[in-house]
Amino acid sequence: MSTLQPVNPKPFLNSLTGKPIVCKLKWGMEYKGILVAVDGYMNLQMANAEEYIDGNNTGSLGEILIRCNNVLYVGGVDADSEA
């Protein structure tokens, strides 16, 4: 059984800049796209973003900004797993 290792969030998010990510909000929506930038408050700017509600793609949004207090989690996406 694997365990989660704690990660310092700012270096983790900075390492994901320019890479594909998935961001889930507290309200259940997920956004997948390229992380463009992260600020000191950990607000996220994404490009080529797509919105998913209950696992269903609801459309392409383009460039978006997600305010930090809405984020449940952020993770990197492998290029191989996107299809």
UniProtKB/TrEMBL annotation:
Subcellular location, record wording: Nucleus
Keyword Nucleus found: yes
Biological processes, Gene Ontology terms: mRNA splicing, via spliceosome
InterPro entries for this protein: Lsm6/sSmF, LSM_dom_sf, Sm, Sm_dom_euk/arc, Sm_F
Pfam families noted in UniProt: LSM
Chain ranges of the Sm domain: 8-80
Keywords per UniProt: mRNA processing, mRNA splicing, Nucleus, Ribonucleoprotein, RNA-binding, Spliceosome
CDD domains for the chain: Sm_F (cd01722)
SUPFAM superfamilies found in the cross-reference section: Sm-like ribonucleoproteins
GO cellular component: catalytic step 2 spliceosome; pICln-Sm protein complex; U1 snRNP
Record-level Gene Ontology MF annotations: RNA binding
Coarse class of the protein's main subcellular location: nucleus
Physiological role: Plays a role in pre-mRNA splicing as a core component of the spliceosomal U1, U2, U4 and U5 small nuclear ribonucleoproteins (snRNPs), the building blocks of the spliceosome.
The family this protein is said to belong to: Belongs to the snRNP Sm proteins family. SmF/LSm6 subfamily.
Protein name: Sm protein F
